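FORM 7B: Structural annotation worksheet

SECTION A. Query
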Amino acid sequence: MMATTHVFTGLAVVAPVAYAAPEFAAALAVGAILGGLAPDFDLVVTHRRTLHFPVAGLAIAVPAVVVAAVSPSTLTLALAALAVTAWLHAASDAIGGGPEMDPWNERTERAVYDHVRGRWIRPRRWIRYDGAPEDAALGIALAIPALLVFDGRLTAVIVGGIAVSLVYTICRRRLVAWTPDWLE
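SECTION B. Predicted structure
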């Protein structure tokens, strides 16, 4: 899935908490945005293995949520949002295609690495590839709760993310032809 879809997933998850406790809305949003993006920083190493923890990430997310529930503060809620969203990002990568540049060719049976079991989880391909039309539709649907709850600059960030998602979806399959061989 697109990074923006992961971000919108995190924002949708934290939106009810932000609605109930608006004084923490900014911290929750920042945590969700960072958590949605952070796992993909492994693009320059082994993508979907180095910083993706689809199983082990739950062992960090659950205690972070407990700490935030017991002792809510800007820091604990931001960290909980980050941990939960990063875990959701890694876990949800299994519902898409593989990490290769052209996942629509279905050349690999590797979606995301499970560090606990020491093996790759196979791609389900419910979202055929990052930037597929169904990915854009899911991302936009997940952005709606965030648009209803967050305001100000966050609204601009969300609308900007939707625009980026749509442009990426339009260009996605052409990007392979434009990619230098050394990046593949």
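SECTION C. Observations
Residues 3-177 form one domain. The two ends are 18 Å apart (CA to CA).

SECTION D. Sign-off
Analyst initials: ____
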